[in-house]
Amino acid sequence: MSRVNQDTHAGPSFSFANRLRRVCWNLTWSLLASWTPAPLHAWRAFLLRTFGAEVGKGVHVYPKVKVWAPWNLRLGDQVGVGNGAILYSQGMITIGKKVVVSQGAHLCAGTHDYEDPGFPLVTGDISVRARAWIAAESFVHPGITIGEGAVLGARSVAVKDLEAWGVYGGNPARFLKKRVMKESDQ
Question: If I label 175, which of 42, 44, 123, 164 is the partner at 20 to 30 A Cα–Cα?
């Protein structure tokens, strides 16, 4: 990341080259992806890869997903990202295999240091481990790790790491119970 300014009142946090790259990305997504039929997942994965995202096999990114900077995005195999999800990847967002990020969920890897007079941008990488579920309209703060198999319930807010195989809900999200998977016939 090329932050150029520690005083956001005086100018942008990112270099001109970074901002130009994001303009190109947003134009490309708007013109070539945002209107496409839902089943064209491979096409949208190709566009993400073209702009530097690491995208696994069988990934389903829907057309109304918003990605801030695909070069800061890693998606494992069989990830699903629902319409209206926002991947605000000012810092790295890594999503493990078989994760579901539901409609309207917001993973936010950037914030500001509100105690610094310059209000500089601060980034924190987000990691969502395998088989987790980020439910509809939930919010994940910068620097958070969502443990393997964890569930962040609908409209919940993760302000601290979520342990593996737990179900969490509320604002701020609190542990509700253990997630126990049913036996598979496969």
Answer: 123
Phi, then psi, of 41 in degrees rounded to 5: -65, -40
Residue type, position 28, single letter: T
The SS3 call for residue 131 is: coil
Q: What angle do CA 154, 100, 53 make, to 5 degrees?
A: 125
Query: In whole angstroms, how large is the CA radius of gyration of the chain?
Result: 17
* Per-position pLDDT tens, the chain of length 186: 445 567 888 888 888 999 999 999 999 999 999 999 999 999 999 999 999 999 999 999 999 999 999 999 999 999 999 999 999 999 999 999 999 999 999 999 999 999 999 899 999 999 999 999 999 999 999 999 999 999 999 999 999 999 999 999 999 999 999 999 988 765
Written as six digits, the tokens of 142 are: 């910068």
How many secondary structure helices (H) and strands (E) does the chain include?
A: 2, 19
Determine the length of the chain. 186
